[in-house]
Amino acid sequence: MFDHRSLASLAACVIAAAPLGAQTRPSQDSLLRRVLARDSILAIQVRVVDSVRRSVARPVPSVDVIGGPLHVRTQPELKARVAEAVDSVAGAVERRGGTAIARRLAARVPSISRDSARTAFGVTRTIVLAPDTVRRWSVTRHRVGDDASVAELTTALARLVEEIAFEGVDSTLSAWVMMGRVPLGPATADELSDAYIALATTESAALRRCRSGDDQACVDALGIDSVAGGRLSRWYAPTDYRSLLRSVAPPREDSASIAAWLRCRESREEAACRIAATALPEDRVPLPLNSSARLLVLREVLDAGGPGAFDRLVTTSGTLETRFEAASGEPIERTMRRWLGRVERSRPERTRVSPQLALASLGWSGVLLALTLTRRHSWV
Q1: What string of H, E and C letters represents the secondary structure of 237-283?
Q2: How far apart are CA 74 and CA 129, in angstroms?
């Protein structure tokens, strides 16, 4: 970057080298402005390069924490919390995993370190969990608050390990799960709530049969195995078409079906709904249940199979139903009954209003009422 002395020397050299007739005051000012502009651009570029260099060459945390196949680098002030989290996650890997997950974890050394993040109110201190200390440009990073508890840190580390363990799985299992991770830890309240809401609110003939005790209907509604017949006729009845068409539409080039789709949504014409639904391509008919429900199924499979369950899941060939039975060591019907019971029992509680919120609402109501009365008296 130019300093004032070098800038003055450069200007003097240019002026001295120019012909005497050209050494007018306007040309000197123009040259000086160009030099200053180039200097400011160079200063900005240097700051950008320094910022990138600092982000790439960030020092690796100095403390090693090892638990089973999991090796983590962290900072001294975080060692106690990280050690408890590593022990907990390593136990989950041992209960549900196997050699396949251990090999994937052995190739990575995640790091847990303090960092800062910009928010709408400035900069806040956080703890960053990166999947590897070698691959710096990793997209999969997780953040928790700087004062995160051991439980919060364990949840974040478990999610990171679940994503690492899922890398390299076959396309069939990956497309079915659609969450990009292996469920090693216990189900969260949000996952259970999402699965219950999908089960209770989705209008699907297959789900109604599933909830009435038809285990094979549950297998079919979850897309675990291919069954003869089209998806639309297997999963949905004509009375379900209007609800189905809220989330999916026929191909745009089929103008007649699009017109029927619009009439179905706006006028609730049963015949229009039937036309639009039957025009859906096979791959556009959605599964009745969401990815949270499917992830719970996979968790039930791994829990039933115990150590080595994931190894059997990824090494067994055949349909998903065959692979799930090999991994769990039990018939798929038993897994379905246990999964359905867990989801049915996870009905979320109604939102409760805290006393503080109720008092605040009453206070604001009083303020608004007082302002209204005041303005009313001022008009009299």
Answers
A1: CHHHHHHHCCCCCCCCCCHHHHHHHHHHHHHCCHHHHHHHHHCCCHH
A2: 9
Among 294, 296, 251, which Cα is nearest to 276's? Answer: 251
At 143 the three-state DSSP class reads strand
Contacts of 298 (CB under 8 A, 6+ apart): 177, 182, 183
Phi first, then psi, for residue 179 (nearest 5°) are -115, -10
Number of Cβ atoms within 10 Å of the Cβ of 329:
13
Neighbours of 157 (CB within 10 A): 24
Residue carrying structure tokens 């109110």: 121
Per-residue pLDDT of the chain (380 residues; tens, 9 = 90+): 445 555 455 555 545 555 544 445 556 667 777 777 777 777 777 666 655 555 555 577 889 999 989 999 999 999 999 999 999 999 888 887 778 888 888 888 999 998 877 766 677 888 989 888 765 545 578 888 888 899 999 999 999 999 988 888 888 899 898 888 888 888 888 889 999 999 999 999 999 999 999 999 999 999 997 666 789 999 999 999 999 999 899 999 999 999 999 999 988 899 999 999 999 998 899 999 988 899 999 999 999 998 889 999 999 999 999 999 999 999 999 999 999 999 999 887 754 445 555 566 666 666 676 666 665 554 44
Burial (CB < 10 A; 0-12, 13-18, 19+), residue 301, is: buried
Task: Quote the Cα angle for 274-225-283, to 5°.
Answer: 40
Sorted by where each begins, the domain ranges of the chain are 4-56, 63-167, 189-236+285-344
Whether 31 and 12 have beta carbons less than 8 Å apart is answered as no
Helix (H, G, I), strand (E, B) or coil at 61: coil
Q: How far is CA 372 from the centre of its chain?
A: 46
